[in-house]
Amino acid sequence: MKKDFTPEDELLFLALGGSGEIGMNVNLYGCQGRWLMVDLGMTFSGDQYPGVDLVFADLEFIEDRRDRLEAIVLTHGHEDHIGAVPYFAADLGVPIYATPFTADLVRRKLNEAGIADQIELHVIDDDHGSFAVGPFEITYLPLAHSIAEGNALLIETPHGRIFHTGDWKLDEDPIIGEPTTEEELVAIGDEGVLALVCDSTNVFNPSPSGSEGAVYKGLLEEVQRHAGKRVLVTTFASNVARLQTLGDVARETGRQVCVAGRSLDRIIEVAQDNGYLADFPKPIDFNAAMNLPRGEVLVLATGGQGEPRAALARIADENHPLELTSGDVVLFSSRQIPGNEISIGAVQNKLAARGITMVTDRQSLIHVSGHPGRPELEALYGWLRPDILLPVHGEMRHMQEQARLGKASGIADAVVQQNGDLVRLAPGAPGKIAEVRAGRLVLDGDIIAPADGEAIAMRRRIMREGVVFVAFDGELNPRIESLGLPLDEDHDDFVAEAIDDIRNAIGRLKGAARKDANSVHEAARLATRRAAQRWSGKRPQVRVILPNI
User: Fold this and answer.
1) What is the DSSP string of 66-109?
2) Quick check: pTM over 0.85?
3) Residues of the chain whose pLDDT is less than 50?
4) Disulfide check for 271: which of 123, 276, 361, 536 has CB 3.0–4.6 Å away?
């Protein structure tokens, strides 16, 4: 292989995001000197990136080779698959392909970013629509998922066919859309599949994910059980099938629908613009909802993951036009995403303290996953019969387990990779052949910066240890201010002792060092930090401000 990693007479795979993690999906296929990108997603920040909301894959590898990139193909409209598009698509400068619903979501993002006129966006039929770019021929294959127009991609190359699942599940009653049938998938397998690149999220689930139709029955029974009470349902805004289900439940139980949350408003609008939710009840406003008898309204709200600015958190804080009181009911028609336990618990505790009843998917069948459990994975293996299994969309434990499951199901080869592993799928035995850079970027304010940069590292240190400022006047008299040290009652005594230490440290400087700014600065910094550690046990960042000396 050439040092610049140009794909020669071979078929390559490279994940820049989404392998070794759940979210931030960015996958590349290389063949005959050209590259194809599948999905361009993001993830949401946690405590590891203080002050940051959005995290992206570092695209340096493909940005350096953008003249060899043919296109970006999007499997579906979840943020972990399309969220980075408005931040990187213009720089990559290639066409984007998506089915109508996903394309509409992307178009709105591009308009908000003011770059819609810079992007070539192709809308492909969501029912087996096909197109070709470079050495790749791509066909969209509808599969059930927790959003409208979830799709797998059948990618034909000179070296064989790839079945890239995207996010998927099996659903006999999906409510929205018509997934590719078992017979169609078997026919694809009969024609040969070189590699199955497959979602690993729920590989540890021994049961099928369940049907959206079953959720309708569960939600209907639950809402009927709370007749005469105000009921709020929180769910993922992007789950159009769930919104259809909730609209049907509201109609069946004689309730009017009130929608709380901008993301819900947006998804309903996009869905209706693309032919979905045609008979969804016309939502009423907040005032009308509050004036109805309690048993005649069904509130749909964002915030099931405990997001502090979402509608449910504001309702829990009694800081929203919609009100819940003792005896009212909140149904969590969504799964708890790992990492959100504390924020979800905080919202639920506030609701519980006010006597509000809560029901989750652990108590009632009011949610099913959009990802396949083990029986569904095994079924797909049997239908497609791929030569190679390449697990993606999971942490390492998920991908390793799917590799074991695939091999136990008769798949000859399984390649477990992670972000940055360059894998050759053909010709010859499949396997990793190189490692490339696959870092992370963060949206920090208005700037996209390295996740491992000095700004984030300093923020972490300040968060853990605090910061002390030492400012000198022209006579080299120090003044000290601190932030984040646990010295509320002892702060003045600490400051007095630290000032004495600083003066003594500077006084010990000899000769020219007394007038050397760097020497004075370092003496003051070390003396201050030692005093802070002595008084607090913390090792704060110390910033020294000197006049010209």
Assistant:
1) GGGEEEEE-----HHHHTTHHHHHHHHT--EEE-HHHHHHHHHH
2) yes
3) 1-2
4) 276
d(CA 399, CA 415) in angstroms, rounded, equals 9
Query: Residue 127 burial (CB < 10 Å; 0-12/13-18/19+)?
Result: middle
C-beta contacts of 108-111 below 8 A and 24+ residues apart: 108/266, 108/270, 109/82, 109/85, 110/85, 110/86
Can you tell me the distance from the alpha carbon of 441 to that of 275, in angstroms, rounded to the nearest whole number?
36
Q: What is the pLDDT of residue 274?
A: 96
pLDDT of residue 220: 97
In this structure, what DSSP letter does residue 111 have?
H
What is the helix (H) or strand (E) element at residue 359, kind and residue range? Answer: strand 357-359
Contact 80, 167 (CB under 8 A): no
Q: What is the pLDDT of residues 56-104, one digit of tens each?
A: 999 999 999 999 999 999 999 999 999 999 999 999 999 999 999 999 9
Tell me, what amino acid is at 491?
A: H
User: Per residue in 161-214, pLDDT tens?
Assistant: 999 999 999 999 999 999 999 999 999 999 999 999 999 999 999 999 999 999
How deeply is 309 buried, as exposed, middle or buried, from its count of CB atoms within 10 A (0-12, 13-18, 19+)? exposed
Helix (H) or strand (E) holding 434: strand 431-435
Whole-number CA gyration radius for the chain: 28
SS3 432: strand
User: Measured between alpha carbons, how far is 343 from 430 in angstroms, rounded to an integer?
Assistant: 43
What is the model's pLDDT at position 3? Answer: 62
The pLDDT of residue 1 is 42
> 3-state DSSP helix/strand/coil percent for the chain, to nearest 5?
35, 25, 40
Predicted pLDDT of residue 340 = 83
DSSP 231-243: EEEE--TT-HHHH
Structure tokens belonging to residue 313: 């958190």
Beta carbons within 8 Å of 32's beta carbon, 6+ residues apart: 7, 8, 9, 134, 135, 158
Would you say 541 and 462 are in contact if contact means Cβ atoms under 8 Å apart? yes
In three state form, how does the secondary structure of 248-316 look?
HHHHHCCCEEEEECHHHHHHHHHHHHCCCCCCCCCCECHHHHHHCCHHHEEEEECCCCCCCCCHHHHHH
340, HSE (Cβ side, Cα atoms, 13 Å): 16
Token duo for residue 402: 């799917």
Amino acid present at 544 = V
Sign of CA pseudo-dihedral 79, 111, 91, 131: positive
- Is the distance from CB of 155 to CB of 29 less than 8 angstroms? yes
